[in-house]
Amino acid sequence: MTKRKRSLLVFLCVSVAMLLFSSACSRFRNAPNVAAGERYVVISPIYNEIIWALGAQDKVVGVDLSTTYPPDVKKVQTVGYHRALSAEGILSLHPTAVIHDNNIGPPQVVEQLKQLNIPMKTFSAKNDGFDGTKALIREMGAYFHKEARAEELCQTLDAQRAASLEKVKQYPDHPRVAVIHFGRASSVYLVVGKGGGGDGGGVSQMIELAGGQMAVENRGMQRMESPEIIAQANPDVVLVTDYGYDRLGGSVDQIKALPGVATSNAARNNRIYRIEENVLNYFGPRSGENIAKVGAIIHQK
Amino acid sequence: MTKPLGNRVALLVALSVITLLVLAVSVRYGAIDFSVSAIGSALASLFPGQPEPTLAQRIFLELRLPRAILCLLVGASLGVGGTLMQALFRNPIVEPGLVGTSSGAAFGSALYFVLGGVFHIGMSLWSLPIAACFGGVISTFLVFLLARSRKDARSSIVMLLLTGLAINALFMSAIGFLSYIARDPQARSITFWSLGTLSGASWKAVQVVAISTIGGTIIAFRYAKQLNALMIGEEEATYLGVNVNRLKWIILSVNVVIVAVATAFTGVISFVGLVVPHILRMIGGADNRFLIIGSALTGATILTLADLLARISVRPAELPIGIVTSAVGVPVFIFLLRRRQYIF
Amino acid sequence: MLQANNITFRVRDKPLISGVSVSFAPGKLHLIIGPNGAGKSTLIKVLARLLRPQEGTVDYQDVDVQNESEADLAKRRAVLSQAVEVAFPLTVREVVMMGRYPHFGGRPSSVDVKIVDDVMEYFDVTEFSERDYQTLSGGERQRVNFARVLAQLWGAAVNSQGSPGSCRYLFLDEPLTFLDIRHQMDFMKKVRSFANGPDVVTVGVVHDLNLAARFADDVVLLDRGRVVANGSPAEVLTADRIREVFAVEPTFVPAGDSSIHLIFN
After folding, report:
1. Is it true that domain A40-122 has CATH number 3.30.450.40?
2. How far is B241 from chain C (nearest CA, A)?
């Protein structure tokens, strides 16, 4: 067979194989559970955490990739990264509503969902502090008809917060803490500034409640391009959120290699710790007890 | 030349059939699978007097169908873009992604998203693709001019690839800068731009890309014979009566426009323009009349297959399509580099 | 008739050829010789109208060339260069067919196909016709290119008005570089026979003085951009000239009907 005919044959075989593979894939997939009733696709880590805490999770049919708490949430299908969604993917789960926290993209997909008259819901309360979090829990409790449970969560939150603050008082020192977070959208390491804001959410509030001080001054999250950012701040403790920490294989040396970290007090005393994003970055039902957790981490020697 | 010509026409017919088959599969399968009867009733609902389309039918008509067609068009434009670029630079290891066109177009698009709101630039349907063309033109012409100095064909292609690398890096970091200064809603538009996606497909996008792709391909085809002459050298082509300078500017412009407009709607998708002409040359030879049409068909097919994979492999989530095309394209690129006759 | 009138071609103020005036009559083989850097290639390119001289004119005296487009001129003027690099898999037939490109619009006619067949036959490359040009040796490639170039000029000359009788122009820019002795001789014989055509002007550049002496009707000796001598081989290739221009000591050895020069330092 001539070389050309052989190449054509290979090309045809590969195309046919890909076609068969694709159609075979569809045959083996699970038929969607088209049960009657409410079906929600929820694209927000905090909303999902509250829904699970409220006990309303049986109505959730899809979550986003960044939702990682509680561990049970992994049993639910993921619709992808919250900024790289696909309308068809969401719709294949036959949702009665898409619940999101105004942080979804790309914009064209949001448009598509709106044009198809898919109900989109965002809660008005924001988890920007303890009061905001309680308001959110109550609002969501009303939406999911779990008002009693919502009240319980709020009371627990207050109680745990009070207990944590007591515990934190026992620490004599207020270490300067730098928090490093890996931004998946921009695929870079970011350092969280004192002013909070943006995706920095509750970080500075949590750190201060836990008896520490934010070492880096600026607002929001900043790229770690210049080593001066951390070097000048000279933190006593460096916290790295889970995804970013694991991405470097959990190697403290590699973290020290991030711009400006190596010369800091934290690096010298090996006070570099891993922390779950869902414990530190935003306020939620567990934030009361999380204060104590964070406090314990940053005060360890 | 009649016998090989007959073969080539047969090949093009075969490629068209394959493209239609692949289109049919891609229209049926995805996060949601549509049966043939479902498709039929969805199309029927378009006719007057039929009941309003259901949600499922609307998903098919407003999401799936335009996406499948946009995929064909974008694939065709990338395929033709690759062929034209290779003919222009007289080397089979170039493609719009490597030579800065895609990243320039992506930069133009990003500029539009970030600044368009600030300066209240007319948000018509054509503003975005025009901004993308603007970016694509700057980056491609930069590479073209900077890499032109050598007379020796061999070192000039190395210069070209290296300059393309540098310009790519420049524009990608410019996009990074834009996403840095962008306010959050704007930033969401340019996230993941470097990986490409067809999830934003709409009939409006199809309209625009159809005009640029089909128009561009027809214009390019008219110059196919002159591009053939260029294959044996610029001097030789001049002796055969070709106005080489004019040819270069026209083809480069057509090339940039069709790739930039496609990139404006889907982000950067690399390596299609590299792989497609290579496959076609293997099966039907290097005549540009065959290559231009063949690469439109084959590009359409390949991108549709890649999109199918992107939609199905992790459903209901989606892979960015650039990941799929790179997974195939990078090994091919390395393989081509190692075939010594092309560089050394 | 091809007339060069006082041509000067400069690159960044450095003249590569200056004040060159020569006429090239049809039916003869004109060969340009000279040492390296004499400007031979530049002269050929100016004569072939690839380069425009800063001073002087090049007249193709049978028709007003100013009004003739490049595309039309290409029907009557062809250039064979030193080596042609092709980066794509083209068959030999495709390369030769390119010589007919100036003569057809979309698709080659049966006449074009026949000419390509004939010219491939003439240069003995028919056996390669479906082979990839890139796989051929240097000598084989030159034969293919010569076939292409002659295909461009094959048949009776026709000018832009479509009337016969005007000249065809063949330029050869050091075409023998990759050829072995046998193919060099074969080549020159074919060129010679083509150049005899009454409506053909043939101008070539060669390095080998022996070939020039043997095959040329008219020799142009170029040195440092200027014409040093112009005339028959016997007139131009004198011992003094050779010594002065090429800086070597020639010995003339008579041999049969042509005289062969042995050159040594």
Report:
1. no
2. 4
Mutate to test the interface with B, among A5, A11, A39 (most CBs of B within 10 A): A11
Q: Do A109 and B199 touch (CB under 8 A)?
A: yes
Instruction: Return the domain boundaries, chain A.
Output: 40-122, 171-299
- pTM value is 0.83
What is the dotted CATH code of the domain comprising A171-299? 3.40.50.1980
Kindly state the helix (H) or strand (E) to which residue A248 belongs, with its residue range.
none
Fold match, A40-122 / A171-299 = yes
Residues 246-285 of B with CB under 8 A from A: 279, 282-285
Query: Which one-letter amino acid corresponds to residue A239?
Result: L
Which DSSP helix (H) or strand (E) runs through A89?
Answer: helix A87-91
Q: Tell me the residues of chain B between 239 and 258 that have a Cβ less than 8 Å away from chain C.
A: 239-243
B197 at A interface, C-beta within 8 A: yes
Contact residues of C toward B, CB < 8 A = 48, 50, 69-75, 77-79, 81, 84-91, 93-95, 97-99, 101-102, 106, 108, 113, 134, 152
User: What is the full per-residue pLDDT of chain C (265 aa) written as tens digits?
Assistant: 888 888 999 988 888 999 999 999 999 999 999 998 888 989 999 998 888 888 888 888 765 555 667 888 888 899 998 878 888 889 999 999 999 999 988 888 999 999 999 999 998 899 989 999 989 988 889 899 999 999 999 875 544 455 555 688 999 998 888 788 888 888 889 999 889 888 899 999 998 888 888 889 999 999 999 999 999 988 888 888 888 888 888 888 877 666 667 776 6
Cα–Cα distances in Å, from B341 out to B233, C87, C135? Answer: 17, 8, 10
With CA atoms as reference, report the closest residue to A197 among A177, A180, A178, A222: A222
Q: What is the CATH number of domain B2-342?
A: 1.10.3470.10
What's the pLDDT tens digit per position in B138-159?
A: 998 888 788 765 555 555 667 8
Q: Which residues of chain A neighbour B285 with C-beta distances below 8 Å?
A: 4
Residue A74 is given by DSSP the state G
d(CA A273, CA A240): 6
CB B193, CB B268: distance < 8 Å: yes
B contact chains, 3+ CB pairs < 8 A:
A, C
Chain C touched by B199 (CB under 8 Å): no
Nearest to B295, CA basis, from B119, B77, B127:
B77
Distance CA C91, CA C148 (A): 12
Across the B:C interface, residue pairs with CB atoms under 8 Å apart total 78
Residues linked to residue C16 through DSSP beta bridges, in sequence order: none
C70 and B231 within 8 Å at the Cβ level: the answer is no
Number of H helices, E strands in chain A: 13, 11
Note whether C50 contacts B241, CB cutoff 8 Å: no
3-state SS of chain B? CHHHHHHHHHHHHHHHHHHHHHHHHHHHCCCCCCCHHHHHHHHHCCCCCCCCCCHHHHHHHHHHHHHHHHHHHHHHHHHHHHHHHHHHHCCCCCCCCCCCHHHHHHHHHHHHHHHHHHHCCCCCCCHHHHHHHHHHHHHHHHHHHHCCCCCCHHHHHHHHHHHHHHHHHHHHHHHHHHHHHCCHHHHHHHCCCCCCCCCCCCHHHHHHHHHHHHHHHHHHHHCHHHHHHHCCCHHHHHHCCCCHHHHHHHHHHHHHHHHHHHHHHHCCCCCHHHHHHHHHHHHHCCCHHHHHHHHHHHHHHHHHHHHHHHHHCCCCCCCCHHHHHHHHHHHHHHHHHHCHHHCC
- Chain-chain contact of C84 with B236 (C-beta, under 8 angstroms): yes
Q: Which chains touch C (3 or more CB pairs under 8 A)?
A: B
